[in-house]
TrEMBL record:
<keyword id="KW-0808">Transferase</keyword>
<keyword id="KW-0520">NAD</keyword>
<dbReference type="InterPro" id="IPR014729">
    <property type="entry name" value="Rossmann-like_a/b/a_fold"/>
</dbReference>
<dbReference type="InterPro" id="IPR005248">
    <property type="entry name" value="NadD/NMNAT"/>
</dbReference>
<comment type="similarity">
    <text>Belongs to the NadD family.</text>
</comment>
<keyword id="KW-0548">Nucleotidyltransferase</keyword>
<dbReference type="GO" id="GO:0009435">
    <property type="term" value="P:NAD+ biosynthetic process"/>
</dbReference>
<comment type="function">
    <text>Catalyzes the reversible adenylation of nicotinate mononucleotide (NaMN) to nicotinic acid adenine dinucleotide (NaAD).</text>
</comment>
<dbReference type="GO" id="GO:0005524">
    <property type="term" value="F:ATP binding"/>
</dbReference>
<dbReference type="Pfam" id="PF01467">
    <property type="entry name" value="CTP_transf_like"/>
</dbReference>
<protein>
    <recommendedName>
        <fullName>Probable nicotinate-nucleotide adenylyltransferase</fullName>
        <ecNumber>2.7.7.18</ecNumber>
    </recommendedName>
</protein>
<keyword id="KW-0662">Pyridine nucleotide biosynthesis</keyword>
<feature type="domain" description="Cytidyltransferase-like">
    <location>
        <begin position="19"/>
        <end position="199"/>
    </location>
</feature>
<keyword id="KW-0067">ATP-binding</keyword>
<dbReference type="InterPro" id="IPR004821">
    <property type="entry name" value="Cyt_trans-like"/>
</dbReference>
<comment type="pathway">
    <text>Cofactor biosynthesis; NAD(+) biosynthesis; deamido-NAD(+) from nicotinate D-ribonucleotide: step 1/1.</text>
</comment>
<keyword id="KW-0547">Nucleotide-binding</keyword>
Length: 225
């Protein structure tokens, strides 16, 4: 259970509770570094990582749920910005973001700002998500830049929706519990888990793509061969 008490900064502004979900098969610098930059831009004190159990929009993971969880924990164990929540891994059904967000909203109350972090690639396909229209009724969306993706959105109706809710600065995010979209100028890292898995299959080095602890774990478990 998340603590909704003492959820303000020293200046009295509400602390934004931010969530970042993913398959993390494996977790890598393309996940971690943009979110760290986003935290600096927005003033996030904590980001909860949510490993997916059964992602509905992606191929099923190669590593097991337990292996992916262990890699996530290893990747952030010395980083106080991040913590890990296992509620999606504990489900036996597909991980629908809107349902997870509702559970967090119930825990932190109606007034504390809640934000969900996505990449610019996910923003382009958000209209395919389950009950995507409800997302901004529950949370803000914080969008990290991705290589090769630009505004406007390819779907004109989605572009109108984006313009209606978009804010140019992070300040409004702490003033309302939900409802805004902030597109952050985070580092453009062209790293993907798919490419990392392919490189492992080819026997190529991934040392510059993910933390050493994750590389060591992958090697010790013989993953992605």
């Amino acid at each position: 259970m998340l603590d909704s008490l003492d959820a303000t900064t020293d200046t009295g502004a509400p602390i934004i509770q931010a969530l970042f979900g993913g398959t993390f098969d494996p977790i890598h610098y393309g996940h971690l570094r943009p979110v760290e930059a986003l935290a600096q831009l927005v003033g996030l004190k904590q980001v909860i990582l949510l490993p997916n159990h059964v992602p509905p929009h992606r191929p099923q993971p190669e590593a097991t749920a337990q292996q992916r969880l262990e890699m996530v924990r290893l990747a952030v164990k010395d980083n106080p910005l991040f913590t890990v929540d296992t509620r999606e891994l504990e489900r036996k059904t597909p991980s629908y973001t809107v349902e997870t967000l509702k559970s967090f909203r119930q825990e932190i109350g109606e007034q504390r700002p809640l934000a969900f972090i996505i990449g610019q690639d996910s923003l382009q396909t958000l209209h395919t998500w389950y009950k995507w229209e409800e997302l901004l009724d529950i949370c803000h969306l914080l969008v990290c830049s991705r290589p090769g993706y630009q505004n406007p959105l390819s779907n004109p109706e989605m572009q109108q929706w984006f313009e209606k809710h978009h804010v140019d600065t992070p300040f409004p995010l702490s003033q309302k519990p939900q409802g805004y979209i902030y597109l952050a100028a985070t580092p453009l890292l062209n790293i993907s888990a798919t490419n990392i898995r392919q490189r492992h299959q080819q026997g190529l080095s991934c040392d510059d793509l993910l933390p050493p602890s994750i590389q060591n774990y992958i090697d010790s478990r013989g993953l992605y061969r």
